[in-house]
Amino acid sequence: MNKTTYLTLLVLLLSIAVFANTNSQNTSNQETQSSTIQRVRVDFVTPLGYTRHLLLGFTSDNSATDDVDYGYDALNIENLPDDLSWRINDQNYIIQGVGEFDISKQYPLGMFLSNSGEIQIALNSLENFETEIDVYVYDSYLNTFTSINDSNYINSLYSGEYLNRYHITFTNDLSLINFANSSAQLSIDEFGLESASIRYIKNTSQINVDTQNSTTINSLKVYSINGQLLFEKQNIFSSSFKTTINNIQSSTVIVQIENNNKASLSKLLLVH
Hints:
Residues 1-20 form the signal peptide. Keywords: Signal. It comes from Gaetbulibacter jejuensis. This is Secreted protein (Por secretion system target). It is a single chain. With 272 residues, the chain is mainly beta. The protein has two domains: 8-176, no CATH class; 197-270, Sandwich (Immunoglobulin-like). 7% of the residues lie in helices and 44% in strands. The protein has helices at 8-18, 27-35; strands at 37-45, 51-59, 74-75, 82-88, 91-98, 106-113, 117-127, 136-139, 144-147, 153-157, 160-169, 197-201, 206-210, 217-224, 229-233, 240-244, 252-259, 264-270. Strands 1, 2, 3, 4, 5, 6, 7, 8, 9, 10 and 11 form an eleven-stranded mixed β-sheet that branches.
């Protein structure tokens, strides 16, 4: 099998079957239904260079929903070392059919990595849209949007599960996105981060974190503006601390702290 794809033939067959009429209708009715479906095809490139193909389909007559719909959604039944799936009701899908296109909607992704390394999320194609739409990868940990219309989202990640962190959105205006029933955005007030401050001390090349004793910080991560992990400190277990960061070439970085409730706070800092 070609290294750059996981079961391409299976996905193509499922793409046809999923959006065919599940009732016994004639061929012309099936073709009419198919023409009303707008498709967003997304590719995930694993640290080992394999590609997972995902499909998101919008039904103009709202014949599908954001929940599981028989005949429109296809479960991910594989157990691959590195993978990306749509997340519906805490399960993994490679094809998701939803209602009509809505710019306020967001669609969560679940990433599972056995191998650390560089990953990519790419827009493969848009189908049946009268005008091109904007497609973004939203990183809820860093609160960043990356357009994938013309270039891929690229990041270096450690092995592990990344649930409710990455989403596909169609706007980069956070105020327009509906995160109802999603755990993408944890309340910093609820989990004790409302008093936290994150500062960079230039003369000592240190990041100073102080939560005013409101919570205990477990980890700190420093990312480039493009989402690449530059520095990480784990097992801090303190409400205030300083850590030195050296050899970071970026002049602007995103610093993310996470407490023992898994709530996180991110801040943009100038470090040069």
